[in-house]
Design brief:
Length: 226
């Protein structure tokens, strides 16, 4: 009876290990705008897998991603900047090595601006993007038009609902805005993976995987985007 009992326990343990291995595949959120750059998800998932970490990247609006991270409904977020600490507090931990660096740009059809802070008209931003919230924190609230995705942001600028927008640097060329009258630096940005505090034990393995990939000459985004 003792041998049979041990055999049953062994079978149950094997089943639990298999189930846990499946359950331990991490769900990481990325802002919907990153769908334009599929290499981010594919390269990161591949590199993590090489280091024994199963992860799937889900594209969702930034604001929803923040809510899910704060409630620990997801395991982390991909492509958030250092300012994000102000939003998530102790609920999430930044993986130190950045995935990539770029600039946040102010684009306007208004000429002769020396600083973007001097602009007084309506400005379009992406809802849930912390660096944009930070950049416009001293603007008149009624002049700030927040939208949910980058295509809508471009659309409201093209249709002249706003005379200025904030964009990641790579999108200035992608949307052919380089000939606008004013293009100014709004923020220098490093983008990171942020892990839910429940996964604090994975910060070091994530950092190792990302660092090794970059040291070997890898890029998570095409060079033209930043």
């Amino acid at each position: 009876m003792g041998v049979l009992f041990k055999f049953i326990l062994g079978c149950l343990a094997s089943l639990l290990v298999s189930a846990n291995a499946y359950a331990d595949c991490l769900n990481l959120a990325a802002d919907s705008s990153f769908e334009n750059y599929p290499s981010l998800a594919s390269q990161l998932e591949k590199q993590l897998s090489k280091n024994g970490i199963c992860a799937k990247i889900l594209y969702i609006p930034g604001k929803r991603g923040t809510k899910m991270l704060l409630s620990h409904d997801i395991d982390g977020e991909v492509g958030r900047i250092s300012y994000y600490k102000r939003r998530v507090g102790s609920s999430a931990i930044k993986v130190p090595t950045p995935l990539f660096t770029t600039n946040g740009m102010f684009v306007s059809r208004v000429p002769d601006l020396k600083k973007y802070q001097d602009y007084k008209g309506k400005i379009g931003i992406l809802r849930g993007w912390v660096w944009m919230d930070e950049a416009v924190k001293n603007f008149v609230p009624r002049n700030i038009v927040a939208v949910d995705n980058i295509d809508t942001l471009h659309s409201i600028f093209r249709k002249k609902r706003v005379d200025a927008i904030l964009l990641p640097e790579g999108m200035v060329n992608a949307f052919k805005l380089e000939k606008e009258k004013t293009i100014l630096l709004a923020s220098k940005l490093t983008y990171h993976v942020w892990l839910s505090s429940k996964n604090r034990n994975l910060v070091a393995p994530f950092d190792k995987a990302i660092r090794e990939f970059l040291e070997d000459g890898g890029q998570f985004l095409p060079a033209s985007t930043g």
